[in-house]
Amino acid sequence: MKIEIYLVKSRILTYEGVLLKETYEYKKFRLDTKSYYSNKKNEKFDTVTNQLIYGGKYKISENNLKSSPLIEDSEILFLCKDSSQIQLSNSGFRKLQNLNYKDDDGRQYVITVNKKPVLNGYLMSRRYSSRVYSHNFLLFDEIVENEKPAENHPLEIFCVNSYIDFSKKTKTDLNNYPLLINAFKKTDRLK
After folding, report:
1. 105: number of Cβ within 10 Å
2. pLDDT digits 0-9 by tens, 61-117
3. 33, pLDDT greater than 50
4. Distance (Å, rounded) from C-alpha 101 to C-alpha 185?
5. CA angle 80, 84, 89 (to 5 degrees)
6. CB of 71 closer than 8 Å to CB of 83
7. Sign (positive or negative) of CA dihedral 64, 154, 57, 133
8. Are 64 and 9 a contacting pair, CB within 8 Å?
9. How far apart are the first and last CA of the chain?
10. Among 18, 42, 57, 75, which is 20 to 30 Å from 187 by CA?
């Protein structure tokens, strides 16, 4: 049984909200090409809170995955269910650090069991996590230059249900992902 973490081939649009370019707000202001929102017109918008949706829920299939995993099975040390954290080896963690995180919206990831998608969300470094609302963040602390690497590296899995208050984050309830829990249990990596 293999547990791996993949990135998606190209960004998948959330099924939450409506397209920004279809909203009254977007049409009313006739945003020009220099506007921040002009390049976001194909993003989704929450008409209740009048906020862009950064990190909304999305549907995934095996066809959306890159051909090889970002994090291989051997680099995933264990899952701590109570703290909602995945521990990675040094080699797995270095792969995360080598990704480009300049994109404010996070990198879409998928955790698979035998290449079947079981949990998805957004991968971000705390250093670049400027957006708030998100579905299943995988958040990690980067190693500062000249810092000695730790033995293992936690990836915190959580959700933020507020656009303006990061303190409103909650641990992802991993009980909602029984295939993931079962895979870690069967491979003796569930704590």
Report:
1. 18
2. 999 999 999 999 999 999 999 988 888 888 888 888 788 765 556 788 899 999 999
3. no
4. 32
5. 55
6. no
7. negative
8. yes
9. 17
10. 57
